[in-house]
Records
---
Amino acid sequence: MTLQQFITAGTSLPLDQLRLESNMDLVKEIQNKLTALGILDPDTERIGERDYGPKTEQDGRFGRNSGFMLEVFCQRANIALTNALTPAIAQSILQAQSGVFLPMNLVAQNDDSIETTIAKRVLRFMKANKYWIAQHPDMINIVYLEGSDLNGQPNADGDNEWNDRRLLIRIKRDGNPDLLHNVRATTEPTIAYAKSQIKNHRRDETEPFAARIAFGQYKAWIMGFHHRFSPRKKQPALQQVLPVLLHRDKDASGTRNLGDLMSLGVFGINQHSTRLNVDFPTPGSWSEGCLVGKNFAKHLEFLTTLKKDVRYVKNLDYRFMTTVIDASRLKREQP
C-alpha cells in the first residue's frame, strides 16, 4: 500500500500494525519521506572500496526510531498523534516539501559571521556529496574536519598535532545553521604509532597496521565509554558499536593512499578525549585511530550538547551519525 492509497482508503491504522510485514511498503515510503525531510536518519553502508555513506532506502521496519520521528514530524506539523496513523497525518507527510517543511539556508550572505560561514560551507559540502543532514532544530550534526584550522581552512595537517576540528552544527528554526562547537581534535594516529604496529604486531596478525578512518558518513556510535573495562582509563565517550571503514597504514606513511589495506568492522574507534585539567601539546598515544578532542572539559560539553538532541532524549540507545571530511577537499569544492 502506498501513502496515496492509504489516504484514499480513508481509514486509520493503529501504529502497532505498522510493524506488520504486510505494511512494509507503506512504512518504507513514510520513512523515506521523513529521511528526505531531514528528520529520520538513514542507516549507513559501504558504497565503494573506500567510501561509506547513507543508504538510499529505509528498510520498511517500523521500530522505535521510526515511531519517535513520526511523533517529531507531527509535533512540527501541529497534528495530533495518538495511537494511530490517520489519513490526515499521511496527507501531511505526503505534501511536506524538503527544504520548506524544515528550511535550510546555505547561501552565503555578506553579513555571515565566521561561524555561520563555516557551518554553511560544511553543510553545502555534505549536501553536494549526498551525505545526510539532520535539519530539525532539536537535532545536531557531528562533523570532523581533518587538516583544518579554527576557521575551517586547510592546514599542513602535520603528524602528531591537534590540527583537526570537531564540530557540532544544528539548523535553527529560521533555517540558518548554528555552529555550536568548534574545537581542536585529531582524527589520525601518529606515524610513531603506525611504525610500532608494524614492528610489534600488537593487533591481530592479519591486521597489524594502524587504523585511520576513511572519509565518509557513519551511523555507528552510542553514548557510552572509552576504555570501559579499565577503571583507571575509563571516560565518557561516544562508543563505536557498528562498523566503520578504516585505512590500514601498512607503510606507516601517516597518509591515506592506494596501497592501504581496508578494514570494515567494530574496532573501538571511539569519540573520546584526553585527561581533565591536563593540556597535552600533542596527541601522542591518545589516538590510535579514534576521533579525539584535545580538551577534556570541552569534550564533556560536546557530550552534554549531544544529550539534548531530541533523538537521544527519546531513545537513550540512539546511534549517533558522524561525518568525517577532508578540509582540503572542502576548500576545493566549497571555497
Note: The mean pLDDT is 95.
---
Amino acid sequence: MAEQDGSLALLLGASRGLGLGLAREYLRRGWRVIATLRDEAADAERPDGLAALGREAGGRLEIVRADINEPADVAALQARVSGRALDLLFVVAGISDGAAARIDTVSTERFGEIMLTNALSPLRAIEALAPAVRRPHGVIAAMSSGLGSVANNTTGGWEVYRASKAALDTLMRSFAARHEGDEVAILVVAPGWVRTDMGGPTAPLDIATSAHGMADMIALRQGGRGAVFVDYRNQEVSW
C-alpha cells in the first residue's frame, strides 16, 4: 500500500471521532476514501465534518449514507463497490454506554443494540464487502479496543462495551478461520485511549496521533495472514 498511489479505502462509520480522523489521515496520504455516515444533514452542519473535509479533498472523498445495522444499506454499499478494488476495508462504527454500564443494570434491549452495532453488524458488513478487497495485498480491519481483551481484563468496568468488543474479536477470529488461505490481512485494531466523545477529555491520545499510528500499522501489516489483535503502535494485544 504505497502512499500517494491512489489506493482506495472504505471506512464504515466515519462521520466523527476516529473514523473521521482516519478519513483525514488517508486523504493526507494521497488515498481515495469512501466514507460512510448515518446522518448527512447533521454532518453538513458541522464545520469539521465529512462534508467540509470533502470540499478540501479534490474529489478523492466519496461520502455515502449507510447504517451498518440496516441490511439494505449494506447491500447498497456492496453494489456500490462492486467491480472496485479496495485496498482497505475498515469497520470503525461502534457505540458505548460508558464505564459505569453493568450487566446487572443494562436493559435487554440496550444490550442487544450494543451487541448488534459493535459485533454482529460489523461482521455482516465484512462478509458482504470482503470480496471487493484487493488480493493479495488488501487489508480487512475492525475497530476493537484494548478493553475487548479478555486476558487483560483485570480491573472490570465498561462491562457491556467490553463484552461487545470481546464478541467482535471472537467473530473476527472465526471469520479468519473460515477464510484460511485467503490472501488478505485481517486486523482487530485497538486505537489506544483517545480523546473522543467515547474516550473523554482526559484520554492521553489525540485523534490525529491515533489515526496516524493506525495507518502506519496497517501499512506494515499488509500481506499478513490470519487474524491479529494489534494496537496503533503496531504492538500485538492479548486476546
Note: The longest strand covers residues 32-37.
